[in-house]
Design a protein that fits this description.
Blueprint: H1 2-6, H2 12-25, H3 30-37, H4 41-54, H5 73-84, H6 99-108, H7 117-126, H8 145-159, E1 172-182, E2 221-228, E3 233-239, H9 244-255, E4 264-268, H10 282-289, E5 292-296, H11 307-319, H12 327-343, H13 348-357
Parallel strand pairs: 1-4, 4-5
Antiparallel strand pairs: 1-2, 2-3
Helix pairs in contact: 2-3, 2-4, 3-4, 11-12, 11-13
Protein name: Tc1-like transposase DDE domain-containing protein
GO molecular function: nucleic acid binding
Length: about 350
């Protein structure tokens, strides 16, 4: 019995039943066992009764022959949602999910009847969820964190076709943010070059070096970019500033891409030019007058904005290893990249970079 409980592999159902029997053998009543096992007292009594009648055979689920159970799309989405949440949000005293704890919780919550650890691993991998090391994320102190996060994820579900929008909800979802500042400076990167050291060609030209930029008199630029999540199309405008007027100008451009009767949502962070304030309600007034919903990500949660992953790819393909002489040259290269990206959305390297950087 102890070997079954201590083992980290195998059926979660067997492990849970063995745990109930051990707790009962230690004198714990069914009500207390139910609290520890996240189940009902009646279920605990059934397990104990079956063990008294059938012994160890009752611990193992009696599956019949045939194909392995398949999980519906709602079940897989719920597994993904719970895996991306924190155990503390569900009242559990853990800082992170292990596969065993997650599988046990899914069974206890009734999401699935039974699932093995390896099966759960395969499902999460297919859904694009991996176990990652947290580096620089900040814990949001936004009092409306849960509501904002839930709204953004609901809009993403609409864009992905997982949820049918109800009457009055947006049918088009944009993920929008600014990228920059764009400076005229050498960017570190990689390139093909002749090798150095004792194997180098003595007659080759010196390897190019990054130039020094002690002064930068050309100013900066900012890229306003948006991703149409339903069509997977990216749009971008390079501007000198990123004030509220420039933000509204870009929003008007996004609004012009669809007929006025089509309700759309724009997901963006809570950067001050994006907000409606007591002194300036132009953003909210424009959104209300043009059938647009502005959905804000929580404070310190810009990772929830899907456009951020596109910026990672833009930096990799377009800016790394460059040294542009003018903003016109740099902006032209960015525009050509966006056009290439929209024509090659299935490029393996592009998809790999975006999927690795994408968190939401």
């Amino acid at each position: 019995m102890l070997r079954i409980v201590r083992r980290g592999t195998g059926s979660v159902v067997t492990w849970r039943r063995a745990q109930m029997i051990l707790l009962s053998a230690q004198g714990m009543d069914p009500v207390r066992i139910a609290e520890v096992s996240f189940t009902s007292p009646d279920r605990v009594r059934d397990v104990i009764h079956n063990f008294n009648a059938d012994g160890f055979d009752s611990l193992y689920p009696r599956y019949r022959g045939g194909r392995s159970p398949t999980f519906t799309l709602p079940q897989r989405r719920e597994m993904k949602k719970i895996a991306k949440s924190r155990p503390v949000e569900h009242g559990l005293p853990f800082s992170t999910w292990s596969l065993a704890k997650l599988a046990d919780f899914l069974v206890a919550e009734g999401v699935v009847d039974d699932i093995s650890i390896e099966g759960l691993r395969e499902i999460l991998r297919a859904e694009g969820v991996s176990f990652q090391r947290i580096k620089t994320w900040k814990h949001s102190r936004d009092p409306d964190y849960a509501a904002k996060k839930a709204r953004v994820e609901h809009l993403y579900a609409i864009a992905d076709g997982e949820v049918i929008p109800e009457p009055g909800e947006p049918s088009v979802v944009f993920s929008m943010d600014e990228f920059g500042p764009l400076n005229l400076q050498p960017h570190p990167g990689r390139q093909w070059a002749e090798r150095g050291g004792r194997h180098k060609d003595p007659d080759r030209d010196p390897r190019p070096r990054r130039r020094a930029t002690y002064t930068r008199p050309h100013g900066v630029r900012h890229l306003f970019a948006a991703l149409d999540l339903g069509r997977n199309v990216m749009y971008g405008h390079v501007k000198k500033r990123k004030k509220r007027a420039h933000f509204l100008e870009y929003c008007r451009y996004l609004r012009s891409l669809y007929p006025p009767h089509v309700r759309m949502a724009i997901v963006c962070d809570n950067y001050s030019p994006h907000l409606t304030t007591k002194t300036d309600a132009s953003v909210g007034d424009w959104a209300a007058a043009n059938n647009v919903e502005i959905a804000y990500t929580p404070t310190n949660s810009s990772w929830l904005n899907r456009i951020e992953a596109q910026f990672t790819a833009l930096r990799y393909f377009t800016l790394d290893g460059t040294d542009h002489s003018s903003h016109t040259e740099q902006a032209g290269m960015i525009r050509r990249y966006i056009a290439w990206r929209n024509r090659n959305t299935n490029n393996p390297r592009l998809r790999r970079i975006v999927e690795r950087a994408n968190v939401a």
